[in-house]
Amino acid sequence: MTLYRDTGVVLRVQKLGEADRIITMITRRYGKLRAVAKGVRRTSSRFGARLEPFCHVDVQCYTGRTLDVITQVETIDAFAPRIVDDYQRYTAGCAVLETAERLSAEEGEPVLRLYMLVAGALRALSAGERDPSLVLDAFLMRAMAYAGWAPAVFECARCGKPGPHHAFNVPAGGAVCDDCRPPGSASPARDTFVLMDALMHGVWERADESAPAARREASGLVAAHLQWHLERQLRSLPLVERRSQ
């Protein structure tokens, strides 16, 4: 039996048998990890409440034949209570967790930057100081950059011509100049491009001052760009409540 410890964020839980659960986490050292928490559904469980989605925990596991087994859990950050009580924060948080699980497809592959992005996004949602939609879109922009899918914003995605430009095309890779613009491209406002750049680089003063119209348009472009690269729709995104605080 090999024991190891890691810190991680719980992404998803699944029932197993009568009292156990399979816990899917994104961890600092081992990337995506699926492990069994035995007896966690019993009322007498020592750490049932610590292994719920949005929980940031320190876990000890031992390697099993098919799935590792969790033997000890300590809470690092209790994000869940402050997220699940607010529908807008909850739906945004669900989109963060689902995106993280999709982008960390290979179990055991280190994804330190993605882990830190997830923990940072949940911390911001839990604090409740910013519009959850902005927090989500900032996470999605940076997660796409981590995956190598960052949309071009102020240069043409095809020829590299400096902008600002007046069109955005998802299959082309983002902003496109007039010469490279494919048919059917969107025509976002300049403020939308400014907001997307602010979210990518964490310029929150500029993002917080953005107009509701720019936020709605940026959210649509970010979601379309992500799902085109994932080649499937995220189940949680249509449920996200978009409103300005």
TrEMBL record:
<keyword id="KW-0233">DNA recombination</keyword>
<dbReference type="GO" id="GO:0006302">
    <property type="term" value="P:double-strand break repair"/>
</dbReference>
<protein>
    <recommendedName>
        <fullName>DNA repair protein RecO</fullName>
    </recommendedName>
</protein>
<dbReference type="Pfam" id="PF02565">
    <property type="entry name" value="RecO_C"/>
</dbReference>
<dbReference type="InterPro" id="IPR003717">
    <property type="entry name" value="RecO"/>
</dbReference>
<dbReference type="InterPro" id="IPR037278">
    <property type="entry name" value="ARFGAP/RecO"/>
</dbReference>
<comment type="function">
    <text>Involved in DNA repair and RecF pathway recombination.</text>
</comment>
<dbReference type="InterPro" id="IPR042242">
    <property type="entry name" value="RecO_C"/>
</dbReference>
<feature type="domain" description="DNA replication/recombination mediator RecO N-terminal">
    <location>
        <begin position="1"/>
        <end position="79"/>
    </location>
</feature>
<dbReference type="Pfam" id="PF11967">
    <property type="entry name" value="RecO_N"/>
</dbReference>
<keyword id="KW-0227">DNA damage</keyword>
<dbReference type="InterPro" id="IPR012340">
    <property type="entry name" value="NA-bd_OB-fold"/>
</dbReference>
<dbReference type="GO" id="GO:0043590">
    <property type="term" value="C:bacterial nucleoid"/>
</dbReference>
<dbReference type="GO" id="GO:0006310">
    <property type="term" value="P:DNA recombination"/>
</dbReference>
<dbReference type="InterPro" id="IPR022572">
    <property type="entry name" value="DNA_rep/recomb_RecO_N"/>
</dbReference>
<comment type="similarity">
    <text>Belongs to the RecO family.</text>
</comment>
<keyword id="KW-0234">DNA repair</keyword>
